[in-house]
Give the backbone structure.
Amino acid sequence: MSIKNVILSGGVGSRLWPLSRKHNPKQYLEIFQGDSLFSLTINRNKRFVESLIVISNSENSKIGEKWLKDMDKPVLSITEPLPRNTAAAIALACFAADREDILLVTPSDHIIDGDSFYEKAVNESLSLAKEGYIATFGINPDKPETGYGYIEYEGREVLRFREKPNRETAIEFVKSGKFMWNSGMFCFKAGVMLDELLLHDPEIFKTAKTAWENRNEDASISEELMKVIPSKSIDYAVMEKSKKIKMVKSDFFWSDLGAFDSLYDYLLRNGHPVDEHGNMYIGDEKKFAQFIGMKNSILIDTRDVILVLNKENSQDVKYIYENLEKSGSTLT
C-alpha cells in the first residue's frame, strides 16, 4: 500500500480573468508571496504521501513542470487532451494506482491555511480510507457563500450533497449549523473508488479503463479515447449515490479562490492595501491608482486588460470570459 497525492490541475479559472488565462491559469499565478497555488498544494501534501499523480491538460502540464522537476518523490503526470470533469480524472488516477493504494485527491487551485488543523483532517481521512470509506472534506462555513456546494451532515455521516444555492438558501444553510462547504477534496483506496464507480456509473468506469489501458508511453490519453468518457463531476457520478461516504469536518482556513471576492479577502488578510472605502488595486505596484466615488471595488490591471468590478459582482466575470471565448478573442 502506498499513499499518493492526486493533484487535479486541468482548470482555467475563468472567474479570475484577466489574471488567469489559458496560457497561465490561476493555479500557476505567482501572487502568493512568490508561490503559486500549484506549488503550495505540492508542498502542503508531500509530507503525507510517497508519490504524486498530477492530472492536467497538455498546456498545463508544461507549465507545471517548473515545480515538479526538483521533486524528491516519484511523479506520474497524466495528460488529458480535453476536459471531461473530475470523475474521469479521478478514474484515470485510480487505474494508474494499485487497488490498495490510498489516494488523497486535492485540486491544485485552492488556498489552505492552518497546518495543525489540516494535518488533523488529513490523518482522519487516511484512517477512514484504510477502513474502506471514501472521505470527503467538509469546510465549516463562515458566511453564506453562493459559489460553493454544500454538504448536509450529521457527525461523520453525509445526509446529502446540495448544489450551489441562492443567497437566501445559503443563509438558511449557515444558520442551521447542519451544513459544510464541499471542498472537492477526497481520500480513499483506489479499489474502493473503482468499485463504487463501476456500481454507480459503469460507463465512466469502462471508458476510463479503456483510455488508461491504451494510453501513450508518456501517460497521455488520446483525444479519441478521452472524448467518449462521459463528462461528469465525481459528486454526480459517485459521491451522491455511494453508501461508503464519510465526512471529515475540517477547521482549517480554505478557499477555492474561485472569484475576485475570495481573492480580495485572501489578499486583505495578508496585508494587501485597500483605501478607506475598501477599494483594492491588483496590478503593477509601481502604478498610482485612485478610486473616486466607489466602495468595495476591485481594479485588475494586466498588460492587455483593465477590469473594474464591484466585489459583490465577482461571480459575473465568467460571463465576460465566456463571451470572449465564443468570439475567438486572444484575450482568453
Remarks:
- DSSP finds eleven helices and 14 strands in the chain.
- The longest helix spans residues 115-130.
- Residues 8 and 107 are 5 Å apart (CA to CA).
